[in-house]
Amino acid sequence: MAGEPQSDCLFCKIVDGEVPATIVRETETTVAFRDINPQAPTHVLVIPRVHYPDAASLAAAEPGIIADILRESREVAELEKVEHTGYRVVFNTGSGAGQTVFHAHLHVLGGRGLNWPPG
After folding, report:
1. Exposed, middle or buried by CB within 10 Å (0-12, 13-18, 19+), for 8?
2. Where does the record place the HIT domain (predicted)?
3. Residues 106, 32: contact at Cβ < 8 Å?
4. What is the pLDDT of residue 119?
5. Are 22 and 113 within 8 A, CB to CB?
6. What is the pLDDT of residues 35-49, one digit of tens each?
7. How far apart are CA 74 and CA 79, in angstroms?
8. Do 35 and 44 touch, CB atoms closer than 8 A?
9. Side by side, which strands form the sheet with 87-90?
């Protein structure tokens, strides 16, 4: 059921503390942790504590939580000291866009030049 933890979801297991992660920040609704395969000097994932397969389904069901994720991306950028030099926030939605874990999450990338267009 949407919003409920999924026993086979890596990110749900991180939220529950079953799988270790390098936590950067936590709030009542979000968890931010370092990506295990960083694509930039700063590469932090911000996820909701509730399970939705992607950003679109989360936004439709719980817009307040997606706002929390975006707000946390700014907090992470400040903590990582990239808020003034620039950073990118990315939601990959669907396997064709590069999503590999189907629990909504936002990437905060910074600490180097980020060319456009990406990928």
Report:
1. exposed
2. 10-119
3. no
4. 65
5. no
6. 999 999 999 999 999
7. 9
8. yes
9. 23-26, 30-34, 42-48, 106-110, 87-90
Candidate list 51, 84, 103, 105, residue with the active-site label: 105
- Residue 43 known to be catalytic: no
Instruction: Identify the CA nearest to 98 among candidates 113, 118, 78, 72.
Output: 118
Delineate the domains of the chain, giving CATH numbers in brackets: 10-110 (3.30.428.10)
**Which residues on neighbouring strands pair with residue 110, listed in sequence order?**
42, 87
What tokens does 85 get? 């030099």
- Grouping H, G, I as helix, E, B as strand and the rest as coil, residue 90 is strand
Give the single-character DSSP code of 85.
Answer: T
Task: Please report, for residues 5, 48, 118, the alpha-carbon distance to residue 68 in angstroms, rounded to integers and kept in the order given.
Answer: 19, 8, 25
Q: How far is CA 23 from CA 14, 44, 56, 104, in A?
A: 9, 9, 25, 17
